[in-house]
Every structure is written in C-alpha cells, then in structure tokens.
Amino acid sequence: MSNRDRILDALASSLEPLDDDELAHRASISPRQTVNMLCRAMETEGLLRRFRGVDGKIVNQLTDALPVADRRPAEPKRPPTRPDGLAVEPLLFVPSDSAHGDSSEQTMAEGRMLVALGKRLGLALSPRRLFHPSGARVEIDGADNNLTVLVECWAHQGPAKVAQKNKLVVDATKLNWIASALDPKPARLILCVSDPAAVGHLSGVSWQAQAIRELGVEIEIVSLEAPVVAALIAAQKRQYR
C-alpha cells in the first residue's frame, strides 16, 4: 500500500478531520513532511480539503470527489485458520483508535519498549492481529510466533488519569479474552508500561488492580532512554493542556 493510500484509508476511517501529525501517526508514515506534501497534492486534485481546525492547526478531510467505496477502509482478509479456530496476521504496527491521546512519540516509545521486553524474555515480539472464531478480531501490541506471550504496551510518564486507569483494565480484558480461545493457552499475559508511577494505583486495593490480577495479567516495567522520556513528556503536555 502506498503512502497516499495509507493517508486516504486513515481519513476514511476517522470520524473527524486529522492534522498532519495525527495523520502521520495513524498512517505510520515518517517523516511527517511526507504527509504534508501528499496532502497538499491531493488537495490540489480535489480529493481532500485542508482548513484550520478548532485548535488552530491545519486539518485534512476527504471531499466528495473521492468515491464512497474508497472512503471505507478494506476489511482485513482472514489468514488461514489454526486448529484452535483462530487466525493470526503479523502487523507492522497496531492501528490507533486515538481514544487515549496516542501520539507519534508514544507509538515510537512503545515500539522500543516491545523490543526491550522481548530481549528481557528472550523472545522476538511483534504486533499481531488475531481473528477470533466468533468473527471478532483484535490487534495485540506484541506476541511471539507461538503466541506463548501476549503483550499490551503503554508508554506514559507520571500517574495515570482516571480514563487511563480504565484503559489498562480494557487492555487486560482484551488479553484475557483472546488468550482464552488459544490452544495451548499463553504462558504469560503482560501489560508493559514505561513508568512505575503510571501503574502506582495498581499496587493498592483499587477495583482496577483487583480486576487486572483476576484476569491473570502481570505488569512489566520497561524504562526508556532519557531523550525518549523527554519527548514523551512533551507530547503528554501537548495532549492535556
């Protein structure tokens, strides 16, 4: 898929206009300037329009010039089914739903965390899309080839906000749910985080802590390099200002 197609797919799957930074993140295109150049070209062609959004940044939105069929992202084709009824597809990255303020800095940091955790465990971990026998599918931040370890990563510095605490429970639920369909069952389900402070609430008696424990999910801390932490903190400040 070309970068142009990635941009069109990202815009088609979004309920709101996207600025170049968010579009680069969702379409997994680097550097950001590539997105800016392609969007300007497609604006000239009449495929999208660029205008100033509510936060003052220039955003991109599809126009009626693009056929309706092309506005819907294609459904992933189901790979061959395993004996346990699941199918697994390797991914280059896990698509973001943007519900929790994901940024390109966060995506990059989580990629580093996954590699570091894999080295710690002696496994090659990479993103996967799993197709459940029910027809539902989920994207997992990391798993080894034999699916003995399933991982969700969260790069965040500092204490978690209320919605983020609930996000961790959602991630744990996803890991537990898809693991229950695997045969054999994964040996470990892991929430990988970058800062102990981000999961400080899980060391007590909060309902989130109890839920995650009962779901059989453990916490692994993977510290990031100072420049990565600085970039991540800057991104968090932009998101929550």
Under the CATH scheme, the architecture of the largest domain is 3-Layer(aba) Sandwich
Shape: globular
Uncertain residue ranges: 68-73
The number of helical runs is 8
> What is the rounded distance between the termini?
35 Å
Number of strands: 9
Task: Summarize the helices and strands and which ones pair or pack.
Elements: H1 3-12, E1 18-19, H2 20-27, H3 32-45, E2 48-52, E3 58-62, H4 68-71, E4 87-90, H5 104-121, E5 126-131, E6 137-143, E7 149-154, H6 162-179, E8 188-193, H7 207-214, E9 218-221, H8 226-240
Parallel strand pairs: 7-8, 8-9
Antiparallel strand pairs: 1-3, 2-3, 4-5, 5-6, 6-7
Relevant terms:
241 residues; alpha+beta; Arc Repressor Mutant, subunit A; Trna Endonuclease, Chain: A, domain 1; 2 domains; 6-stranded mixed beta sheet; 3-stranded antiparallel beta sheet; 8 helices; 19% strand
Tell me what you see in this structure:
About 2% of the residues have low confidence. The protein has 2 domains: 69 residues, Arc Repressor Mutant, subunit A (Orthogonal Bundle); 154 residues, Trna Endonuclease, Chain: A, domain 1 (3-Layer(aba) Sandwich). Helix 7 links the parallel strand 8 and strand 9. By secondary structure, it is of the alpha+beta class. The chain is globular. Helix 1 crosses helix 2, helix 2 crosses helix 3 and helix 6 runs parallel beside helix 7. Helices cover 39% and strands 19% of the residues. It has a 6-stranded mixed beta sheet, with helices on both faces. Strands 1-3-2 form a 3-stranded antiparallel beta sheet.
